[in-house]
Design goal:
TIM Barrel; EC 4.1.1.17; elongated; about 375 residues; alpha/beta; 2 domains; Orn/DAP/Arg_de-COase; Lyase, Ornithine Decarboxylase, Chain A, domain 1; binds pyridoxal-5'-phosphate; 8-stranded parallel barrel; De-COase2_pyr-phos_BS
Length: about 375
C-alpha cells in the first residue's frame, strides 16, 4: 500500500467497500516499465482500469492505449488521447464500432479471423492491421485460453489476404495470459512470431510490428519475477530472433500499470463457524465475487489481506462475500489464515487490487451497490 493510500484510508476513512488508488504509483509503474523495455511502445490495456484520472495521467506521460470496445476508444479520446495513439485490440468487434472508431481517427486494429478481416477491409480501409496468434498460456494465473488468436498457418494466409484487401499488413500480436509468472512464455512466443515474419517476407509481405500483449505480473501473495527480468528476457529473445532488423515493439500492460496502485478497503460483516469445534472460521466481507473480485473465480488470483490484528495469533479461514449466492465464496482451498481476533466491524484491506476490480462489480446484485472509487 502506498503512503498516499494509507493516509487517505486513515484520514478520510471512506465508506466500504471501496477502491483507493494512488495515481502517482500508476506513473511510477509506467516509468519502470519504460525503463525495463526502452524500445517498446506502451499501449495501456484500458480494460484493467478505465478510470479517467488514470487515462489522463497516462496521456500526459505519452502513453498509447489498447481499447477493447468503442466505449473504451471514446474514453481514451475524452481523456485527451490522440486517435492515432489508440489500438482497437479486441479481435471481436461490431462492424458499427469499427466504422465509428475509424471515423474518429483510429487506424490500428486487431483481428484473428477472415470474417473480421473483411469487416476491417470494408469499414476501416487502409488501416494498419495485426493478426493475433494463439500461444501457450502456461505460467499464467489468469489464462486467456483459446478464445482469442488463430493458428500460425492461418495467420500467414490472413496477413497475405490483408494486403490484397487494401489493408496495411502491419504486424503480429499474442497474449501469454494475464498474471504471467514465467519470462519463458514471452521468449517462446517471440520465436514463433519471428518464424512467421520470415515466412511472410518470403511471400512478399514485410511486417513491421510485434505486439507482445500484456501479462506482466503483480505481486500478490507470492513473489513474481521483477519487470526488469521480463524486459531482459524479452529484449534478449527479440535480438536473438530478429538480429539487427528489430521491428517496432508494442506492449499492452494492464495489470502491471494499475494493480499495485490500488487497495480495496472492506468491512468484516461476520466471523462464524459451521460447528462449535470447527477450526475453520468463515469470514464474510462486504465485498465478494459480485462486488468486483471476479478474479477470485477458481481461486485464480490470490489477494493479500491486511487486518488491524496482523502479527497476533491466526488460524485457518474460508473467506466469502456478502451475497446469498454460494459462488460468492472467495477462498476455501488456498490455505488462507487470518487473526483469531478478527471480528465483525473490523476494516480489512485487500492489497494490489487496482486492476480488474472496479469494472467487474455487478450493478446491484442482492442490492449491493457497485464498488466506490477514490483516486488520490
Ligand atoms: C487483457 C489484455 C491485455 C492486458 O493484460 P494484462 O495481463 O492485464 O497485462 C493486453 N492486451 C490484450 C489484447 C488483452 O486482452
Amino acid at each position: 500500500m502506498t503512503p498516499k493510500v494509507a493516509a487517505y484510508l486513515r484520514d478520510v476513512a471512506p465508506a466500504t467497500p471501496c477502491l483507493v488508488l494512488d495515481v502517482d504509483r500508476v506513473e511510477q509503474n509506467y516509468r519502470r516499465l519504460m525503463a525495463a523495455m526502452p524500445l517498446a511502445r506502451v499501449y495501456y490495456a484500458v480494460k484493467a482500469n478505465p478510470a479517467t484520472p488514470i487515462l489522463e495521467r497516462l496521456v500526459g506521460l505519452g502513453s498509447s492505449f489498447d481499447a477493447a470496445s468503442l466505449e473504451e476508444v471514446q474514453a481514451c479520446i475524452a481523456a485527451g488521447a490522440r486517435a492515432e495513439a489508440i489500438s482497437f485490440g479486441n479481435t471481436v468487434k461490431k462492424e458499427s464500432a469499427i466504422r465509428t472508431a475509424y471515423a474518429a481517427g483510429v487506424r490500428m486494429f486487431a483481428f484473428d479471423s477472415e470474417a473480421e478481416l473483411k469487416k476491417l477491409a470494408r469499414s476501416a480501409p487502409g488501416a494498419r492491421v495485426y493478426c493475433r496468434i494463439l500461444v501457450g498460456n502456461d505460467g499464467a494465473e489468469w489464462p486467456l485460453s483459446r478464445k482469442f488468436g488463430c493458428e500460425i498457418g492461418m495467420a500467414k494466409d490472413l496477413m497475405v489476404q490483408a494486403g490484397e484487401l487494401g489493408l496495411d499488413p502491419y504486424g503480429i500480436s499474442f497474449h501469454v495470459g494475464s498474471q504471467q509468472t514465467k519470462t519463458a512464455a514471452y521468449e517462446v512466443a517471440i520465436g514463433r512470431v519471428a518464424m512467421l515474419f520470415t515466412d511472410l517476407a518470403e511471400a512478399g509481405v514485410n511486417l513491421r510490428m510485434v505486439n507482445l500483449g500484456g501479462g506482466y505480473p503483480v505481486r500478490y501473495r507470492q513473489e513474481v519475477p521483477e519487470i526488469d527480468d521480463f524486459g531482459a528476457a524479452i529484449m534478449g529473445a527479440m535480438a536473438e530472433h530478429f538480429g539487427n532488423a528489430l521491428p517496432e515493439i508494442v506492449i499492452e500492460p494492464g495489470r502491471f500499470i494499475v494493480g499495485d496502485a490500488g487497495v480495496v478497503s472492506a468491512e468484516v460483516v461476520l466471523v462464524s463457524r459451521k460447528a462449535k469445534d470447527d477450526p475453520v472460521r468463515w469470514v464474510y466481507l462486504d465485498i465478494g465475487r459480485f462486488g468486483g473480485l471476479a478474479e477470485t473465480e477458481g481461486e485464480a488470483i490470490k489477494y493479500a489481506f491486511r487486518t488491524p490484528h496482523d502479527g497476533a495469533a491466526d488460524g485457518p479461514v474460508t473467506i466469502a462475500g456478502p451475497t446469498c449466492d454460494s459462488t460468492d465464496t472467495l477462498y476455501e482451498k488456498s490455505n488462507y489464515r487470518l487473526p483469531l481476533a478478527l471480528e465483525s466491524g473490523d476494516r480489512v484491506e485487500l492489497l494490489s487490487t487496482g486492476a480488474y476490480v472496479t469494472t467487474y462489480a455487478s450493478q446491484a446484485f442482492n442490492g449491493f451497490r457497485p464498488l466506490a472509487e477514490h483516486y488520490v
